[in-house]
Amino acid sequence: MDNNTKENILVTGGGGFLGYAIIKKLVKANKSVTSFSRNFYLKLKDLNVSEIKGDITDYTSIEKAMHNIDTVFHVAAKPGVWGSYSSYYKTNTLGTQNVISACIKNNVSKLIYTSSPSVIFNGKDMEGVNESTPYPLKFHSHYSKTKALAEQMVIKASSDILKTISLRPHLIWGPNDNHLIPRIIKRADRLIKIGKIGKQDKLVDTIYIDNAAQAHILASKKLDLNQALSGRTYFISQDKPVYMWEMINNILKAAKLKPVTKTIPYSAAWLAGTIIESIYKIFKIQKEPQITRFVAKELATAHWFDISAAKKDLEYTPEISTEQGLLILENWFKTKPY
Description:
The protein has helices spanning 17-28, 42-46, 59-65, 85-105, 142-157, 180-186, 188-194, 209-225, 244-254, 266-282, 293-299, 308-313, 322-335, and strands spanning 8-12, 32-37, 50-53, 71-74, 110-114, 126-129, 163-169, 172-173, 196-197, 203-204, 207-208, 232-236, 242-243, 263-264, 303-305. By secondary structure, it is of the alpha/beta class. The longest helix has 21 residues, at 85-105. The protein is globular. The N and C termini lie far apart (44 Å). The mean pLDDT is 92.
């Protein structure tokens, strides 16, 4: 792109936790930004961001939104661990295919895709693994499978015309989080009564929201400077694994809630997840169960990753430490508690 030409950027899921954080940084950098989301958001209006209401599962609407767009940050996805495979596939896989097709149709030059480390989760401890780790033979959630299929599409779409990078942020958290932290707060009483899952507290990676947003913007910048990065995938994190239950207790502490101190065996949690899942399926209960087999396995296994590639290729380093992030979170809880 000519240095004198202003870059036009589209962010899918711009009203969401990560999408909004990316947009805030882009606006601060004086970029021309458009948000594509299923709703309009006052917080985006306050930033004077252009908004297009639509759904990535509707090719016509996303294709139209990409007219005159240079770079796309594809963040929109169906998260969580409960729901039909078709609902995850429609949004995460077919939705991403629509985004890719619309990019190609409109000669978009860059696509930065938000993937997930869960795409390689094989149900076992993952300690210091890197991007060479293969996809598992068996996926443990609809989310991870459909995100893996989408990631493979993005990698395959890389070309001289459309340059792509996929990022794998793990457990994004911070003020205004609408996924991880609300789940912890909502289940706080039950967690305290039941206890930690597994005898050993395992190390996991997390990433503070501003660091996750910054990594996406770095990926876009570096892709301009080095097109050989196109088609690559990168883990991003705080670059400092933490113990899972210690981190959960730190979040509870920031919210002025009691810590989880008891412990239950993983086998008991897995059995409970199996029984509860069966009940939910039999009675067709739509809301997410308190515990599932996937959640039990995730809470009882280590998952932290080697981010050397992101540090080298993207020059990514977390600007806000976990300790700093927790202080910011604690202050935020004082003004807007859950």
